[in-house]
Amino acid sequence: MKVKQPRKAVLSEPSPIDDGQKANRKRRMGDPRRPNWELQLYIAGPSPKSVIAFRNLEQICEDHLVGHYQIEVIDLIKNPQLARDNQILVVPTVVRKRPLPMRRIIGDLSNTERALAGLALRSFDPSPFAARKALKNI
């Protein structure tokens, strides 16, 4: 299996997600045959939101899943049938395939706490005083 290693996403350069139908990013540690987390990022071309979503997802994975994740980027402009097949209505959308249950997150993942909660990496306290509670616990 050939794995493409995307370049770092910079808005002024071509994005790492515009080089084909699917760009795979694999990070492995432990079992070399399979990462623990399988994530798919659905985009519509190399738009700024898509690049930001990729950057944010990659940063979250590096911070919380070091070596145990795989990100597959799927461009729906090049494969529009996949939107219907996978029931993708809005882009960017992240789909967590593994571990089960499957989860979906819509948006560019700029709110890290919500993204972590959506991926079930950490509980999320949506109350307006959550930040104040966190400071008291320090």
Descriptive overview:
The protein has a 5-stranded mixed sheet, covered by helices on one side. Mean pLDDT is 75; it is low at 1-16 and 18-30. By secondary structure, the chain is of the alpha+beta class. The termini are far apart. The chain has one domain (22-136): Glutaredoxin (3-Layer(aba) Sandwich). The chain has 4 helices and 5 strands, in the order E-E-H-E-H-E-E-H-H. The chain has helices at 48-64, 81-85, 112-118, 130-136, and strands at 22-28, 37-43, 68-75, 93-98, 103-106. 26% of the residues lie in helices and 23% in strands. The radius of gyration is 16 Å and the shape is globular.
Topology:
Layout: E1 22-28, E2 37-43, H1 48-64, E3 68-75, H2 81-85, E4 93-98, E5 103-106, H3 112-118, H4 130-136
Parallel strand pairs: 2-3
Antiparallel strand pairs: 1-3, 2-4, 4-5
State mean pLDDT (0 to 100 scale).
75
The total count of strands amounts to 5
Strand content is 15-25%
Largest sheet report: 5 strands, mixed
Q: State the helix count.
A: 4
Mind telling me the CATH class?
Answer: Alpha Beta
**Number of domain modules:** 1
Distance between the termini: 46 Å
- Rg measurement, Å: 16 Å
In sequence order, what are the helices and strands, one letter per element?
A: EEHEHEEHH
Quaternary form: single chain
Which segments are poorly predicted (pLDDT under 50) over 5 or more consecutive residues?
1-16, 18-30
Report helical residue fraction: 25-40%
Q: Helix- and strand-based class?
A: alpha+beta
CATH superfamily: Glutaredoxin
Q: Biggest sheet, strands in spatial order?
A: 1-3-2-4-5
Query: From the 3D coordinates, which CATH architecture would you assign?
Result: 3-Layer(aba) Sandwich
Write down the overall geometry. globular
What is the third-level CATH name, the topology? Answer: Glutaredoxin
